[in-house]
Amino acid sequence: MTDVDNAVAVVGLALRVPGAADPETFWSGLADGQVSLPAARSVGEAGGPLLAGQIDRFAEFDAELFGMSPAQAAVTDPQHRVLTELVWQALEDAGIDPGASTGRVGVFAGCGPDAYLHANVLGDEQLVRVQGQEQIQLGNSRDFLATAVSYRLGLTGPSMTVQTACSTSLVAVHQAVRSLLTYECDIAVAGGVTIHPVEQPTYEFTEGGIVSPDGRCRAFTEGSLGTVPASGAGVVVLRRAADLDEHGASGVHAHIVGSAVNNDGADRMSLVSPSPRGQADVIREALESAGLSAADVGYIETHGTGTVLGDQIELAALAEAYGAEYGQAPCALGAVKPNIGHCDTAAGVVGLIKTVLAVRERTVPPTPAQSGDGPDVALGSPRFFIPRKAEPWGDELPQHAAVSSFGLGGTNAHVIVAPARTPQPEEPPVVRNLGTAVLSAATDNALRDRARSLAHWLQGPGTDTPLTDILGTLKHNRRPLGRRWAAALPADETAARERLSDELTTLAGGGGRTQGVVAQPTVAALLPGQGVSLAGVGTSYAAVDDAFRADIGTLTAKVAAAGGPDLSTFGEWAADDPRLADTAVVQPVLFVLGTAALRLLERRGIRPVLLLGHSIGELTAATHAGVFTVGEAAAAVVERGRLMAGAPQGAMTAVRADESTALGLAEGLPVDVCGLNAPDNTVLGGAPDAVSELEHRCRDRGIAVTRLATSRAFHSRTMTEAADEFARFLGQFTLRTPSQDLTILSNLTGAPLTAEQATDPGYWARQLRSTVRLDDALQSLLNAVPEVVLGLHRGKTMTNLARQEARRQGHSPLITDLFGTKEGDEPLAVQDAFAQLWTAGCAPDLDIPHPGRTVRLPAYPFADTKHWVDAVPTPERRASAGNVQETVELPPQAEDGPESAPADGESDGTAAVIASLWQSAFGGAPLRPEDNFFSLGGTSLQAAQLITVVNNELLLNMRLQDLYENSSLGDFAARADALVAERDDDELLRLLEEIENGGGALEGEA
């Protein structure tokens, strides 16, 4: 298995052990010979209990990230929780987003005893009663260790718990390797966890046992009498090396080229005694599977517990399998337990991680020398030596390494590790626009923390990392979460780094533009009419987007073929070019830009379902919906512009008043309402003299007016002849029903455009002549509650009106403009618009290349919320849930529990009982009446348990259907109160009295 094509790559690492919460800190401590056990830091009282090793962050958990309620997290074994967070970290280290991966991810893991369940959870009767045994078992039984991780992270490969005592996690690695090589999965996560669920675990030394008498582990030294128990956890992520291209190979820590597992069988003194024959056999089998000889291995990470019998037997097995007869090349022996203690089920994978790091760093790590150590024992072969300081892994030392883990009960595992191949350097890709930096987290606090750590990393370890690789890793190798931030960056690398650093610092300080994600957000698009700035729009963006430039070219050619103006040089026209004041030119320009923008959105993965076009914009929207072909639309737009430009001279003015007031002011004047832009913004038009008189009347009344820059009164009686001609022109076409997945809002009615209207040439004629009811259309658009409103132009003409209407309705969609709001870096503005769409939950193609090399960025900042049930120190069981520890404490309950609700005011008492039971079920901040059982994370198991408890507490006969139909706290309490009111309390009291007296029907039936 030495061929890379048959090897398994170690692509991700994560661990928590005494003294280290990440692989880099772990390796630094190993290289320095650091001992992280309590006895190495302080000595306890003579004769008292000895201190065991403990990890940081075993009581805290990021419940929100993993979709768990606070109460559910509190009753879940910390071993399950720590493993879940480590799998997340290891996948991030590997640059794998399982949600974006097409491969199946398997999980192979084991854990220690369920001490937390028995010492903590089961001691709280109220908690057990509300949560239910089934729910508690899901969070504590080893049966659900791996499957719960698969559920919470969405992993679909084989998922199984492995339990072989001390060798558990290395056996899990072996199982994962086999699963990969037989193509059961494409990515495998393997590891183990043991947590002693107390702040400072202790142990008792017993003569002849396996634990150390002084809190130190002294493997392979004379006088060593045992090991030191410790909490610990580790996870590796594995992939078939043959599946990795040059990009993927750049992130490989090392290769696993062979592994084996066996059992000692009956060839030993007892069930818990080791066998040198069994250990030697598993070593030889692993070497054979790797296609290697013992002489190819230069470092062995031993099981190395420090027990007299265990060390002697292991050395004998090593000498038999790796001794001098296999060559004279030196071979270092290492043991991690003197550094961090014996992590039980996690010991094997921790040893593997140490070995992988040693191979990666080409450094032989030391086994620490400690005060009180005796001399090294005889190692059994002249090949073997124990390094006591870190040494370079030179050519004189064989380049392969091995790891042993031997379980109490006789299951042995041995793994062979090889250095990863060095990928060939690649030329960096040519990038016209660096693109976008994206960042997401489960909460705003985590998002800010993530920004802070990334900003610091950019100024330190990430200084020389190519920015394209950083952006690619953030986009393609991190799971997108619910709170998002994004920033479009300029093409210049130096300017981009500076802007990214500044934006991250702003975000970390509580500023910046963030957005909460909505699943499958609805997108609405706004298409402007005449009156917007057109000079240069789309030109600089077309220079960097070949497809957009091609669309512009195709559409301008369609316009020209229909007899329209030559728009081929449109991008070069200055703002004062007279052609930009000519309706016959402007309408085709708007059509070309609007259609190209809609095509751009679709190419980038955004399909608006609501389209609102102002005047000519509605015809553009109809074309996109299939009412017109592009050729028909180009001809219609050219004819429409020609007819409207040929209408009589006119003028238009915007009056700061509602329609009724404006009409009153215009009474007796030959003017019409041309457009309703807002409740207090009415546009009127007609003959120039009439409009001037109207403006005079408005000023006399103190009403503001704004004359529009136009020489025609569009959408007024002056357009009657043009409208009639346009209807006749459209009669030559067969208009089609709009696409059913698109809603176009009508200018005439403000309501959705009907199929009858869309296919009627007369409608489009009336649309040219009549009032544009933009305000009504905006109300309809926002009544549909879109999450995103996107203006397909440059400037805020229509989007500002949408913002005003959204404020009036109390909505807060994301409203932005595709081409920005002013002249400047148009490609950056477009990229920024797509970045904002991503923050809202859309899935646009952000045009961010995959990284040439996946970057190991700062780890996800898990929330430091403590989720814990205190152990009950006495046999007496408490009846309240107040011992569930969280950042936000539970509301206080009456000393006698929910049963103490007053008899009078029974409705209030019922609501209090229900609220208390719900609070115990979910934990966290005090619940509100509108909180929904299922939105809080309630499951069918929890629902059944809650109904049982409510019925017992209130003597009701509620059913699951009552909860399903009344799923908010307030509705459920009201339903319970209604059932209480219907209950025959006299009959209930009579039955209770008979039961209490041991008589009545129940006794007779017995």
Please, could you describe this protein's structure?
This protein has 1006 residues and is of the alpha/beta class. It contains 35 helices and 29 strands. It is 38% helix and 14% strand. Strands 4-3-5-7-1-8-15-14-9-10-12 form an eleven-stranded mixed beta sheet, with helices on both faces. Strand 22 and strand 23 form a beta hairpin. Helix 3 packs across helix 7 and helix 21 runs antiparallel to helix 24. The longest helix has 21 residues. The C terminus is likely disordered.
Salient structural properties:
single chain, 1006 residues, alpha/beta, five-stranded parallel β-sheet, 29 strands, 38% helix, 14% strand, disordered C terminus
List strands and helices in order, with pairings:
Blueprint: E1 8-16, H1 23-31, E2 50-51, H2 70-74, H3 78-94, E3 105-111, H4 115-119, H5 125-131, H6 133-138, H7 145-153, E4 159-161, H8 168-181, E5 187-194, E6 202-203, E7 232-240, H9 246-249, E8 254-263, H10 276-290, E9 297-301, H11 308-322, E10 331-334, H12 337-340, H13 347-361, E11 363-364, E12 384-385, E13 391-392, E14 400-406, E15 411-419, E16 435-441, H14 444-459, H15 467-476, E17 483-489, H16 493-508, E18 514-516, E19 523-527, H17 539-542, H18 546-561, H19 583-603, E20 610-613, H20 616-624, H21 630-645, E21 651-655, H22 659-665, E22 671-678, E23 681-686, H23 688-700, E24 705-707, H24 720-730, E25 743-744, H25 755-758, H26 761-769, H27 774-783, E26 788-791, H28 797-809, E27 814-817, H29 826-839, E28 868-869, E29 884-885, H30 906-922, H31 940-954, H32 960-965, H33 969-982, H34 985-996, H35 1000-1005
Parallel strand pairs: 3-4, 3-5, 9-10, 9-14, 10-12, 19-20, 19-26, 20-25, 26-27
Antiparallel strand pairs: 1-7, 1-8, 2-6, 5-7, 8-15, 11-13, 14-15, 16-17, 17-18, 21-23, 21-24, 22-23, 28-29
Helix pairs in contact: 1-13, 3-7, 5-30, 8-13, 10-11, 14-16, 18-19, 18-21, 19-20, 19-21, 21-24, 24-26, 27-28, 30-31, 30-33
